[in-house]
Amino acid sequence: MRPASTRILGMLAGAAGLVVLLSAEAPWRVDTHFSPAQQLGDGTVRSYVLRRPGGPPEAVGVTLSAGALRNLPARPNSHSRCFDLDGDGSHAGHECIGDEERVLQLPEQAAEGLPFRWLTVNWNPAGHPAPYNLPHFDVHFFAWERERIEAIAPGPCGELVDCADFERGSRPLAPAYLPPGHIDVGAVVPRMGNHLLDSRSPELADSLPFTRTFIYGAFDGELTFWEPMITRDFLLRTRDACFEIRLPQAFRRSGYYPTRYCVRQDPEAEAHTISLEGFVYAEARPDTDIIQHRER
Q: 70 to each of 39, 66, 92, 278, how far by Cα in Å?
């Protein structure tokens, strides 16, 4: 059977909904499910799920078409994720996050058993505070319903978040649910949540230039999103690369969880993908089960 990266690129190239491929070594089938496309730059972006019928997901991600990385906004805007914090009826620069955001649903027919149902693609032309101050994409795969995420209110604390929600976002995860090595740096964002950084990522552990990293979202002591963060430059120059996602000891919800995130491109189609892959199944372990296990 061909390597996973080759299969994934082959299934996405020119696909419009469902693709069936056969290997010379053994017959196999993977269905490709897409969300509707949305405009981005000079191209489009859409979510996708690759899945064997009746089996686990093979990949969940976003595909950026030819042109989606061209003519992107060069600076933060004054309309995206803006909050009238001073109540004057207008938005000043300090009241806007200013990224270019697209909200995408995961194809419902392929989302069974996954912890997430929707995602956002955020283009950040000016990046975030150092070391993340380079043009890059954030892809947030949300585990919470959109209504709960959007209820995280704006305000003067953290990164423009309500102070009570800053406290809720900063609530520590129980050790069993905390991915190893991930740290809280106070990056609680309205309509999004807290961001737990991997302290072993190259830009933090080795002070290397930021190219790609993985972040977990948290709120009220729960994991709320999975986030690959990739620079535009890294997308353009990377043909095929995957990186480990560090999993916690336990999850609150049963389902398939990714063990790596990948960046790929098809030079002929000029298409790029950012995906979660290597899914493993985990049974839910409530707090009480973990405490009782420790006490035995």
A: 12, 9, 27, 30
pLDDT digits (tens, 9 = 90+) for 215-267: 999 999 999 999 999 999 999 999 999 999 999 999 999 999 999 999 999 87
Backbone φ and ψ of 294, nearest 5°: -65, -35
How many angstroms separate the CA atoms of 35 and 125, rounded? 25
Q: Are 91 and 84 in contact (CB under 8 A)?
A: yes
Per-residue pLDDT of 205-214, as tens digits, reads 999 999 999 9
Instruction: Round to whole Å and give the CA distance between 127 and 211.
Output: 12
pLDDT tens by residue, 256-294? 999 999 999 987 778 999 999 999 999 998 765 554 334
> Before 107, cis peptide (omega within 30)?
no
Nearest to 217 by CA among 186, 244, 190, 194: 194
Torsional sign, CA 196, 198, 201, 206? positive
Task: Tell me which residue has tokens 């000016």.
Answer: 126
Please tell me the total count of domains within the chain: 1
DSSP line for 99-139 = -EEEEEEPPGGG-TT-S--EEEEEEETT-SSTTS-S-EEEE
* Beta-strand pair 194-198/212-219: antiparallel
> How far is residue 131 CA from its own chain's centroid?
19
Residue 135 · residue 76 · CB < 8 Å: no
Six-digit token string for 108: 């419902």
- What is d(CA 275, CA 62) in angstroms, rounded to the nearest whole number? 6
Task: Cite the beta strand spans of 125-193 per DSSP E.
Answer: 136-142, 154-157, 161, 182-184
Report which of residues 292 and 180 the model is more confident about.
Answer: 180
pTM exceeds 0.85:
yes
Per the structure, the complete domain to which residue 166 belongs is given by: 4-295
Query: Tell me, what's the pLDDT at 104?
Result: 97
